[in-house]
Amino acid sequence: MIQIGQKIPSSTLSQLTAEGMTNHNTDELFANKRVVLFAVPGAFTPTCSEAHLPGYVVLADEIKAAGVDMIACVSVNDAFVMQAWGAAQNAEAIAMLGDGDGSFTKALGLDMDTANFGGIRSQRYAMVIENGVVTTLNVEEPKKFEVSNAESILTALK
After folding, report:
1. What is the 8-class DSSP label of residue 143?
2. For residue 39, what pLDDT band results from cuts at 50, 70 and 90?
3. Is 73 a catalytic residue?
4. Which of 16, 29, 48, 95 is catalytic?
5. Digit-coded pLDDT (tens) for 106-149
6. Beta carbons within 8 Å of 138's beta carbon, 6+ residues apart
7. Ranges for the Thioredoxin domain (predicted)?
8. Type and span of the H or E element at 71
9. What is the pTM of this model?
């Protein structure tokens, strides 16, 4: 698993916006920025839709005021699903990134196999990335939602 002080692995994440589909290289996406990246096991799933993403939507302005250039949500879903979920959650301030094949999640070492529930998914986590390097990493224990929420990250940023 990736650790604090390590560089984010080079990978590709997709994003669908009003301008169309963009395939972001993570080296470029996280370069020269302070980014909050949080991951969910799946778009439209209960905890993700009822608490995790909404918390970042509500606190987006405060997080950005703490010196964050970008807030991004990633899931092992395609960019179309991530865009639709973001629209349904009023997440305009959050970059909704798809890791369709799970390669980014696997490269981080934060993948999990949910078997017939959904296959390979991401563990629930949040991290702060500064110029491509992880400076904060909060990984949830299985079936928990305590350290990757927006409030915890906002506290870590102050």
Report:
1. T
2. very high
3. no
4. 48
5. 999 999 888 777 778 899 999 999 999 999 999 999 889 999 99
6. 125, 126, 127, 147, 148, 152, 153, 156
7. 2-158
8. strand 70-75
9. 0.95
